[in-house]
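Researcher: Please translate sequence to structure tokens.
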Amino acid sequence: MILVAAMPRCARGRQGPALRHPGLADGRALQPSPQRKPEQIPAGRGPRHHEYFVQWLRDNSPSHENAEEGHFAAGAAHLANMACRRGRRMAWDLRTSRAFET
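Model: Translation complete:
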């Protein structure tokens, strides 16, 4: 199941084979992975993003967030949006800090 509302507009309506990987490099078709029973992993609720931020301000404790990691995470999302809207593959050049079509 694909959540269409969460997809960029340019990808909506292409839920079929257009969004699937075409195959392996040697021409063989991809084989479906065997179905496994979902594993239950208990997870306790920890502090949320804003709670970490307030804790950092109050206690002057080390921040869990890193500006460089946030920059790269946002950049990856922007690059994916650019690729989707242009209908092309995009890449990022670390030396020049520029995106380009591949």
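Researcher: Any highlights?
Model: The longest helix spans residues 67-86.
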